[in-house]
Design goal:
The structure holds two protein chains of two kinds.
Chain A: H1 2-18, E1 26-31, H2 35-49, E2 52-57, H3 67-73, E3 82-85, H4 89-96, E4 100-101, E5 123-135, E6 161-164, H5 169-182, H6 184-197, E7 200-202, H7 205-214, E8 219-223, H8 224-232, E9 237-240, E10 251-259, H9 265-275, H10 278-287, H11 316-321, H12 323-334
Helix pairs in contact in A: 5-6, 5-12, 6-12
Chain B: H1 5-10, H2 17-53, H3 68-98, H4 103-108, H5 120-140, H6 150-175, H7 179-188, H8 191-219, H9 223-227, H10 233-244, H11 247-253, H12 255-269, H13 294-322, H14 325-334, H15 336-352, H16 354-365, H17 371-383, H18 386-397, H19 411-434, H20 438-447, H21 451-479, H22 485-488, H23 496-506, H24 509-540
Helix pairs in contact in B: 2-11, 2-16, 2-17, 2-18, 2-19, 3-6, 3-8, 3-13, 5-6, 5-13, 6-8, 7-8, 8-12, 10-11, 12-17, 13-24, 14-24, 15-19, 15-21, 16-17, 16-19, 17-19, 18-19, 19-21, 20-21, 21-24, 23-24
Classes of the chains: A alpha/beta, B mainly alpha.
């Protein structure tokens, strides 16, 4: 009797651990957008369509080895239907690796051409910008930087300026953008000087923000969502959109793509249509995740209202093409 | 004795016992090899296939040339420093706590272990906040600020984060020393001489094994060193994987780390000799309080001070950051699914790792030629970066041999944790097996009515501390695991650590602090639960 009880108990645990099947419509979304921002949007979609969404969220600590590597590894037997990325470089890479499927969403009609893949493998929307976060207690307005090149300004203390490792995430994308804009030699020279000056290299953009908020850094290069979070929490910081008089600020759109061979393609397409709608862009502006909408929408971002931002005159493809060289250079420079 | 209900219940099985036991051992070994080595072997096959096809240059990544050589040297230096300093402090702390063998104090000494699953980066943030406060004070007095960057700072944070484990492992080592030998030594020499000539030499192999653990945890971590701008080889592997998205390239690059790990594991653990000591956990080795010299007492208090400072800095810092009870309750309520999921994974890992770990430990104990192969298997999995285990498991899932019903389910993260942590449990169990006098088992077998009786009444009680320690270690490591789980967590489910890292990026310090406290409380409750189960089980055993 007792052995029967043990067998039944063990089987129940095993079945509980293995069971995840239900009859209702399902959708599996891999989201590399912070859970705090993406979860409400996913829930809204679930409420609207009655489709059960099973998300997998990335974490910053995993850098880019998280969901992107998972998608690459799962290519022979895809588990996900949609990949929603907080930036674009890894999405373009997934297209090259054959992980994505084309889908021309009707919601993408009014998106600018540079935010759309001509073959329909991905769409960009809801942009974030790369900003210089300044501690306003430590710097007077006249000392505030206006350009990325102010990070090399000898008048500002190098030890109190910082950026995340340019090996991963949006900082890597930013480095690639500089390579594309300035040319590989000048781009590399910029980072060599950053290294020479001894700027502080933090573990991630969130860490850069925290160091600026705490006053350990006076200036930090980070993303607008991080800056917005600090501003909304009442920290004595301000965001500077760099190079508005020159090359412009790097704007990084979110991207969304259908996974080839995913188990629920129709639901995936419905989610892409929803995500690319102006309604979602408004939600993202209100949440603080996005500051630069892809198309004119009837809403203002929760942070940096009324700021007109001049973006860098580069296509996403031009930036993406620089990635392999930048990754190699940055590793040689910063991991030694 | 025969009339005990447990024995009576098992008696009908006695005729099949030898066969079942042998089958059980082989089965557990097979499962262990499949689970532990599966992901690694799949990656190794991929590397071989790619190298043979058109990527033979990938094999060159296994040679730490150019800047990778100094990086590896820096990593070794950091890991040696952390393991060395951590072990010394751990032994000093353990000697202090060793005397607490009765009443509630005997439980209290294991309490710092609840901090083990708290992510390293949370430790770093806590120390950073403290140093900031100190610098603020120094500035007030016009003194220069402390610099908290570089290898020393990274080593400090790693060492302090691992100190509870160091103390726990050293305590386990000391607990296995025969109290009778200590008493005999104390009759003729001073306590300090007894400690130096009898206790430490007998416990040394186990303490060395603990040092090996600390070394491995340090050398495979890149998160803390990168926070302090101290670049290590593990970061290079991670950057390679991130850039190429080719697990085979990352695996080739991690081969030097694997070699180092094999050396450390074989060097630190194979030194274990059969010490044939009686189980000391029921006997107080220091019934008469020891008399140490003043300097030694100061050293012990120093180590305990550091341990206390860790507990204070971390728990107090987290407590303050968490804000009020309301915020904490909100954070906990919203994380209930993650808490239950984490508990499920960690509990299953802790239980399921024991049979293969015990089988592996028994193989390691044998004086046979294939012992080295087993060491290689264990060391290989210890050195592989966590994301590679995750990718290896996905690749394994893509093969026709992988059970389809398990694909994409909650069992896959358990498999990932089993792959990563079964070798740890095996080493802990080996330490325990080395202390068991085979004559007791033989004596029991002479008088046995069934092999199950010997197993339940003799072998299991003797192995109980090792089983509990192995399961506990697997539980704690599993509940704090991120790298592999992130890649194999089923859609719609996340662990508590995944949630913590998510909020960490968002900058919600209060939620992060609350969730870290929940993590510590979860381990505490699990520890209490395990202690209760153990107590109940001991009560169930025959008294005669």
């Amino acid at each position: 009797m007792r052995s029967l009880f043990i067998i039944v108990l063990a089987s129940s645990i095993f079945i509980m651990a293995c069971s995840n099947s239900t009859k209702e419509k399902e959708l599996i979304v891999y989201a590399s957008v912070d859970q705090n921002y993406s979860e409400p949007i996913i829930q809204k979609f679930a409420q609207k369509t009655k489709i059960k969404v099973l998300p997998v969220y990335d974490v910053e600590a995993a850098k880019t080895t998280g969901l992107v590597n998972r998608l690459v590894a799962e290519k022979p037997r895809p588990q996900a239907d949609v990949f929603w990325n907080g930036e674009f470089a890894q999405t373009l890479l997934l297209k090259d690796k054959g992980v994505l499927a084309p889908y021309m969403s009707p919601s993408a009609k009014d998106l600018p051409a540079e935010y759309k893949d001509p073959e329909g493998y991905w769409n960009g929307f809801a942009g974030r910008a790369r900003v210089l976060l300044v501690n306003t207690r430590g710097l007077t307005p006249s000392q505030c930087p206006v350009s990325l090149f102010d990070l090399l300004n000898a008048a500002l203390p190098a030890q109190q300026m910082g950026l995340a490792y340019p090996l991963f995430g949006t900082t890597l994308t930013h480095a690639a953008a500089l390579y594309a804009y300035l040319g590989p030699q000048e781009g590399k020279a910029f980072f060599e000087k950053i290294k020479e000056r001894g700027l502080r290299i933090a573990a991630g953009n969130g860490a850069v923000r925290d160091l600026v908020v705490q006053g350990q850094l006076l200036i930090g290069l980070t993303d607008t969502d991080d800056a917005c979070g600090a501003v909304r929490r009442g920290a004595e910081v301000a965001a500077v959109f760099p190079d508005q008089e020159g090359m412009g600020t790097l704007i990084i759109p979110n991207t969304v793509a259908l996974v080839a061979g995913g188990p629920h393609p129709q639901e995936g397409q419905a989610f892409i249509d929803f995500l690319l709608s102006p309604e979602v862009e408004k939600m993202m502006l209100a949440s603080g995740w996005c500051q630069v909408p892809a198309r004119p929408v009837d809403a203002q971002p929760v942070c940096f209202k009324g700021t007109s931002i001049k973006g860098m005159n580069l296509t996403l493809q031009q930036i993406y093409q620089q990635l392999p060289l930048v990754q190699k250079d940055m590793r040689e420079l910063f991991v030694r | 004795m025969d009339s005990h209900p447990l024995v009576a219940f098992l008696r009908p099985c006695r005729w099949f016992a030898p066969v079942i036991r042998d089958m059980g051992h082989r089965g557990a070994l097979l499962v262990g090899v499949a689970v532990v080595m599966g992901p690694f072997l799949v990656l190794l096959c991929q590397l071989g296939r790619d190298a043979v096809a058109d990527h033979s240059q990938w094999l060159w990544l296994a040679i730490p040339s150019g800047r990778r050589g100094p990086l590896l040297a820096r990593s070794l230096l950091l890991a040696c420093g952390v393991a060395g300093a951590g072990t010394v402090l751990g032994v000093l702390g353990a000697i202090f706590l060793w005397r607490w063998q009765k009443g509630w104090l005997s439980y209290l000494r294991w309490l710092p272990l609840i901090l083990l699953p708290v992510p390293f980066c949370v430790h770093a943030l806590a120390w950073w906040t403290l140093v900031d406060g100190v610098n603020y004070g120094l500035a007030w007095f016009g003194l220069p600020a402390l610099s908290f960057q570089g290898g020393l700072a990274a080593g400090w944070v790693q060492m302090m984060a691992l100190l509870p484990l160091a103390v726990g492992l050293a305590l386990l080592g000391l607990e296995t020393v025969d109290p009778a030998l200590i008493e005999a030594g104390r009759l003729v020499r001073s306590d300090i001489a007894t400690l130096g000539r009898i206790v430490l030499p007998l416990a040394a192999p186990k303490i060395l094994a603990g040092a090996g653990f600390l070394f491995l945890l340090s050398i495979t971590d890149y998160s803390v060193p990168s926070l302090f701008q101290y670049h290590v080889y593990a970061l290079e592997i991670f950057a390679e994987f991130s850039a190429s998205h080719e697990p085979a390239r990352a695996l080739a690059m991690s081969l030097p780390l694997l070699l180092v790990t094999v050396g450390v594991v074989v060097g630190s653990i194979t030194g274990l000799r059969d010490s044939l000591q009686p189980p000391a956990w029921t006997i107080n080795a220091w019934e008469r309080p020891p008399e140490w010299s003043r300097y030694f007492v100061v050293l012990q208090y120093g180590a305990m001070g550091l341990l206390l400072s860790l507990v204070t800095v971390l728990l107090l810092g987290l407590g303050i950051s968490a804000g009020g009870w309301t915020q904490m309750a909100d954070a906990v309520t919203s994380a209930v699914p993650e808490i239950t999921y984490s508990l499920r994974i960690a509990s299953l890992t802790a239980v399921l790792c024991l049979p293969p770990a015990l089988a592996m430990a028994r193989e390691l104990q044998k004086d046979k030629g294939d012992k080295l192969l087993w060491w290689l298997i264990i060391a290989a999995t210890l050195a592989i970066p966590a994301p590679l285990i995750g990718v290896g498991l996905i690749s394994l899932g893509n093969t026709p041999w992988f059970p389809r019903f398990m694909s994409g389910t909650g069992m896959v993260p358990v498999l990932a944790d089993l792959s990563r942590f079964t070798p740890w449990a095996a080493v802990v169990l080996l330490v325990q097996l080395k202390s068991v006098n085979p004559l007791w088992i033989e004596a029991a077998r002479v008088l046995q009515t069934s092999r199950f009786q010997t197993w339940f009444q003799v072998e299991l009680p003797i192995l109980a501390p090792g089983l509990l320690a192995g399961a506990g270690l697997a539980f704690m490591l599993s509940i704090g695991e991120l790298g592999a789980t992130l890649l194999v967590a089923p859609p719609g489910q996340a662990t508590l650590v995944m949630r913590i890292y998510n909020y960490l990026h968002y900058g919600a310090a209060d939620t992060v602090a609350s969730l870290c406290l929940v993590l510590a409380a979860t381990v505490l409750l699990a520890g209490c639960g395990a202690a209760l189960v153990l107590a109940a089980w001991f009560r169930l055993l025959p008294r005669s």
